[in-house]
Write a structure and sequence with these properties.
It contains seven helices and nine strands. By secondary structure, the protein is an alpha/beta fold. It has a five-stranded mixed β-sheet, sandwiched between helices. It has a four-stranded mixed β-sheet with strand order 8-7-6-9. It is globular, with a radius of gyration of 17 Å.
């Protein structure tokens, strides 16, 4: 394989985890599965592309907001791989990746507790789905709260539409500021249920 930038990117913040292997901006492969399978997906992507782990130049992890368990799993995986392979890591917001995959749409991620994570004036926030105002909404929250969003005048693409997934290829495309794995932090917009109930 030719030298260059070879990035492994993944996002585990939603129920559909994505992973991608990208060389110099070209997507070599991409998988959609569950957060628990991200290491298997990474290995399969490397094998299918003919690339070696030693060729990786960086890791990109989705930082959420989203599932607390999924985020922790993804960031722990990124940190473990980065330490084992001596690689820098960059974090990219799940909302930013969704927006990159659906220009002009508002990203809406299901936040549980009858809330969604979205962007207001470009800033991540948590709110009730009834408070979301946009012409086009994508993401797990858009699918889950379709009736409410459509009643507010939003268009929501069909459930199986590609734009609802936070594709890891967009994480790789948006990644900046690679550095030590410990510097990448999850984007929590509220405290976890377990801590709130303690």
């Amino acid at each position: 394989m030719s030298p260059g930038v070879l990035t492994l990117a993944f996002d585990t913040a939603t129920s559909a985890a994505t992973a991608a292997l990208v060389r110099d901006g070209e997507v070599l492969g991409e998988r959609v599965s569950r957060a628990v399978a991200v290491l298997v997906d990474a290995d399969e992507l490397l094998r299918a592309s003919g690339a070696q782990r030693s060729e990786l130049t960086g890791i990109v992890a989705g930082t959420g907001p989203g599932s607390f368990t999924g985020l922790r799993l993804g960031l722990a995986t990124a940190r473990g791989l980065a330490l084992a392979l001596d690689l820098p890591v960059a974090g990219v917001s799940t909302l930013d990746a969704l927006a990159a995959g659906a220009p002009g749409a508002l990203p809406v991620v299901d936040g549980g507790r009858r809330e969604v994570f979205t962007l207001v004036d470009g800033e991540p926030t948590v709110c009730a789905p009834q408070d979301v105002r946009a012409a086009l909404c994508v993401g797990s929250g858009a699918v889950g709260y379709r009736a409410i969003l459509e009643a507010n005048g939003a268009e929501v693409p069909p459930d199986e539409d590609e734009r609802h997934l936070p594709r890891a290829r967009f994480h790789a495309q948006l990644a900046r500021d690679f550095g030590p794995a410990g510097q990448v932090e999850p984007l929590y917009l509220r405290i976890p249920d377990a801590e709130r109930n303690a």
